[in-house]
Amino acid sequence: MNIWSWFSDMFLKMTWLSQFFEWLFQSLGVEADSPLFHGLVFFFYDVIKIFILLSILIFISSYIQSYFTPEKTQAILGKFKGIWANTIGALLGTVTPFCSCSSIPIFIGFTKAGLPIGVTFSFLISSPLVDLASILLLATIFNGWVALAYVVTGLIIAIIGGTLISLFKMDQYVEDFVKEPSPMMMTDLGEPMEMTKKDRVNYGIAQVKEVIHKVWLYVLIGVGIGAIIHGYIPQALIEMVLGQDNPFSVVLATLVGIPMYADIFGTLPIAEALILKGVGLGTVLSFMMAVTALSLPSIVMLKKVVKTKLLVTFVGIVTVGILLVGYLFNAFGYLFI
């Protein structure tokens, strides 16, 4: 557990980077408890963290992808059909502890490799929602039954979401640059070429440059919006709005959660405080799921790689799933706590 915490802090959450910007802005005279301080730290920390993760993940997925033509990948995946393929995609998401923004480059790599669109979306939904570390933290803060219930519901949303997107045949609504293999992987005759290790490294670097060039502005806009909300909307206001006597608390929790950008680790302390304030379990789970799966920065980034109809379908399916989870757990939450 100590080794995992160190690895998570150093390489996934990059707490050292957040601490650096806290020290920097304090040194520059910005008041530590001010909304401006929290907004600035959030913005610079998350922008740099996202670009680091984007670059590393795009390079790794591109390097691996260079070994597999779309035809070869499709042949492997052809062994699994329908809901089983979506289940594999969702389960794969559980072992990748990335936030929603960081999951998008893997989504791009999977799509370029020829994976069915529904499978990639099952991964995209489950990856930020559920991971091994979050299960342990949920069990610590709440209990094992709540953690298990959260994992199961997250996987169900991911599997059903990907399955519906497959049934709606929405492959055509992915941007062309995502679906098309890079010219570096093709010969002059349009056939897949044999690549050396140097070719694969160059291909990975080229993919990093290409994707970063296409999404950098969206990253800045999305994280900027998240930083403003993070710095200037107090937690006390959220707790007041999401009280247990409000029948619309699940809807409000979902709407409040969407503009906030954070991974599940950032939402857990808020979730714990909300539970202590008397907010229903379903309302808290809806808030957590909205923050991690439907954060506004990730939607802004996803808009760059999919067309509006697919984006709206994705958001609609996940939103309905989150709302159902919220109301069901508010009704039967007493069975878990």
From TrEMBL:
UniProt subcellular location: Cell membrane
Chief place of localization: membrane
Family matches, as InterPro entries: DUF318, UPF0718_permease
Domain of life the protein comes from: Bacteria
Keywords: Cell membrane, Membrane, Transmembrane, Transmembrane helix
Topology class, membrane: Multi-pass membrane protein
Transmembrane segments: 42-64, 84-108, 114-138, 145-168, 215-233, 245-262, 274-299, 311-336
Alphabetized PANTHER family for the sequence: PERMEASE RV2963-RELATED
Family per similarity comment: Belongs to the UPF0718 family.
Protein name per UniProt: Permease
Organism whose genome encodes this protein: Paracholeplasma manati
Lineage of the organism: Bacteria, Bacillati, Mycoplasmatota, Mollicutes, Acholeplasmatales
